[in-house]
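Standup notes
- HV: blocked on the assembly model, inputs below
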Amino acid sequence: MPHDHQDHDHDHSGMSPSGHPYREDQDRTRSYWQTMEIAARELMIEKGVITADEVAAQIDAMDARSPARGAAIVARAWLDPEFRKLLLVDAPAASTELGIDIGPLNLIAVENTDKVHNVVVCTLCSCYPRDLLGLPPDWYKSRAYRTRAVREPRRVLAEFGVEVPQDVTVRVHDSTADMRYIVIPARPGGTDGMDEAALATLVTRDSMIGVGQARQPG
Amino acid sequence: MPTPDPLAPGARVRVRTMMPPGHVRTPAYLRGHVGRVERVLGPFGNPEQKAYGHTGDRLPLYRVRFAMADIWPTSEAPSDTLDAEIYAHWLEPL
């Protein structure tokens, strides 16, 4: 138990009561572009182009998007073969049919099968289907993921706990331009008779990026 | 008879090796490599113009599929694939 100190001979200055080092209040300096963003935003508010409430509302709307939207689409595709077919040829139309507004998002759905495992990356920046999955995780934006996912995807997947058998093709999708991608993970066994809402709870964010599998029930 | 589209799905293409300055959306690691058109998308505004505040010309966008063995001298699994979206002016039909 690293925090359960018996001897108190050593120096605790600069440490919290639980033995963690204190961090500075501002542990990173503000970058040039952060300063520019603040300046532009404040100017636009001052000049009445936008209001502070509108900025806050937009941030709320962005934060409200979560992987639950993508999970609902996957669960429907598992249950409804016609919907699955539509999703694979015209993902925006399928999303609209489900009442999910993905805005101007150009979406492609790719399906994992016993022959193909799909995984998504954006080597140039951090393109991500935010309308369906919310904000991207930090690792998705890291140079390590972005460079390695196209160079050694099987090793990267193994580090995420996904061992892809040699007879299964790994298909990497680099979202280099206008399209965004969602992976339809394979439906786990032992899920017969489960309804759509229950199935959706098995669909993780990582499984829709392709670095995970859907959860087993129970 | 209409001329067949040299960039129709299935067409073999090489990514041009040019290195223009500015904002481009063709990754350097794919330049010079050969793949096949998987599907045709768009048209979308050319990001190379949009990045500088211009209205982008509407261009078709191609999803090109590469074999890992054709991109990397040593690859974990040569028949694994990589798909990327590339605009027509970056593609040379073979």
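- HV (later): unblocked. The longest strand of chain A covers residues 106-111. Chain A touches chain B at residues 106, 123-124, 150-155, 166, 169-179 (CB under 8 Å).
- Next: hand off to the docking folks.
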